[in-house]
Design a protein that fits this description.
The structure is a homodimer of 306-residue chains.
Chain A (H helix, E strand, L loop, with lengths): L37 E6 L4 H11 L7 E5 L5 H18 L4 E5 L3 H10 L3 E4 L2 H11 L17 H15 L14 E6 L4 H12 L3 E6 L1 H6 L13 E5 L2 H11 L8 H18 L3 E3 L5 H12 L7
Parallel strand pairs in A: 1-2, 1-3, 3-4, 5-6, 5-7, 7-8
Helix pairs in contact in A: 2-3, 5-6, 6-10, 8-9
């Protein structure tokens, strides 16, 4: 099994014809001068959906707007309050804010749409209508998608997986490794702990993590307790310079953090993973979300279908 | 300062005129018979944005579709592969799948739009155009919003906050409580650990958590180490029956898990939080996301604006 060290994320080359901007290239690519744009995220729930989605759209623009999240707007009174805030911003800044909304109650939505001086992006209703036609049923206009989630199997799986990740962090316990969905291996500070916690929290996946330490490299074998579970091991590696920087924040000027030692450990780790046939990737230029998704795609594709 | 025990999430009453469905009420509210719908989430990145957003729209319908996430679709070849899969599903199931896409490259998007037999919901471009007009700049059609995030300040804050949450879990350390943004208090198993980790991972907020234990109740005072930091404490409480159920999974038939003890601890905990003027909420019917958002709104509204 080969490594996954190449980066899956492609930064578009602006000279590549595939990535030509939609508008004529004479259009300026930087934001016009003036105060920063303000973007509101207004929701009857947490606003996390609105903000996640809004952010991924905004990342398509070379501007850095100010973010304001207004969660739990579940009455027309609260909607009017937010509208006043939006209109005040419009006045002070001399331009209308962009307002991403996820509001299912039509009355509350109407307050924002009709009274605010912002550019309202109604993320929900744009897609609800075609889906009503497709499914042949009406939507239920129910506020709060998380509302009864806390009693669900999916939710208790997440909580249980968080406990599992904590109990199996940094090789603390080899008990119940059989119950792990994934075992992350790699040198100290290569990103194993945040990835395990993310896999638990976002996907309800039980991830143990196990450090590869100099003793393992001297024996030139993975820790014995992992041998029966090699098929569910996944390796993380990292650029030695980056690793040295991270380790130096923890233990400045130590042998542990020295660039020579980091180079040696990383090389040994990669050699071992190749030898043992453990799939791996480099965490250097990847976010936790990307690492977790890549692991699931390669090791547990079933977890991307449910 | 009052408690926050009332639930912020409102489940709409179907008889409430505010929540009347958009279509005539004669429309059936249950899915028509037949195989389950399949929903695809196709993205050039992790697909998490597509899935988060798609899920929150799908939660408006009384159906439970099968989910298939297809991340890292960053070439037309991969797009054709997904299209074949979608079309196969359409054929086998006798109806077209719903396909939520976040694809910024127009060529890759065109493959899915033109060749797939699914109902394609193009989440990106719907909103990009009005924003290009608003901002007066073209979008950069760049794949992978996380791509250089791993070098950003925001990202290193998240990683550092995760370490902080782990080091300050369950009252393990009272060192550097001064550096905490939030200190969660509450009886054992009231949801403090997952909430601390979520605050770190999602918001880069440093959250310590501190259990309230029988000795604290006997002294009728919060732990001395918390006294200087009362203003950044936030309490979690929980329904005693729910707590007993959760604790019984851990330590069956123990005094710790008994309903009498749970009732006593919860009552003592709530009394103490009231007396000390610590804001609190009940985690019983709330998701981690909702708890975290409520805490930020009440304690650190600055963290909802940046």
């Amino acid at each position: 099994m080969g490594g996954h060290s190449k980066c899956n994320v492609i930064i578009a080359d602006m000279n590549d014809p595939n990535f030509a901007p939609a508008a004529p290239s004479s259009t300026p690519q930087v934001a016009p001068p003036g105060p920063r744009h303000t973007v509101y995220f207004v929701s009857d729930g947490t606003g996390i959906t609105a903000e996640t989605f809004g952010n991924s759209i905004l990342s398509q623009f070379a501007i850095k707007p100010r973010h304001v999240r207004r969660p739990f707007i579940d009455s027309t009174d609260k909607a009017h309050q937010v509208v006043r805030e939006i209109n005040h911003t419009a006045e002070v800044e001399g331009r209308r804010p962009v307002v991403f909304v996820t509001l299912v109650n039509p009355e509350i939505l109407a307050v924002v749409k009709e009274h605010s001086r912002g550019l309202v992006m109604d993320m929900f209703n744009t897609f609800i209508e075609p889906l009503e036609a497709e499914f042949g049923i009406t939507s239920n206009h129910r506020i709060g998608r998380f509302s009864d989630v806390s009693e669900s199997k999916e939710y208790s799986d997440r909580i249980e997986s968080i406990s599992f990740a904590l109990a199996h962090d940094d090789g603390q316990s080899t008990r119940s490794l059989a119950a792990a969905d994934v075992i992350l291996v790699g040198v100290s500070r290569s990103g194993k702990t945040p990835t395990s916690l993310y896999l638990a929290m976002q996907h309800g996946v039980k991830a143990a993590n196990y450090p590869l330490i100099p003793e393992d490299f001297e024996r030139a074998r993975i820790p014995g307790s992992l041998v029966p579970f090699k098929a569910k091991c996944f390796g993380l590696t990292i650029d030695p310079d980056r690793l040295a920087r991270i380790r130096n924040e923890r233990r400045p000027n130590s042998k542990y953090a020295s660039i020579e030692n980091c180079r040696w450990e990383v090389k040994q780790g990669e050699t071992m993973m190749k030898k043992e046939g453990i799939a791996w990737l480099s965490s250097t230029h990847k976010s936790i979300e990307e690492i977790a998704t890549t692991i699931l795609r390669d090791l547990r594709p079933d977890r991307l279908m449910y």
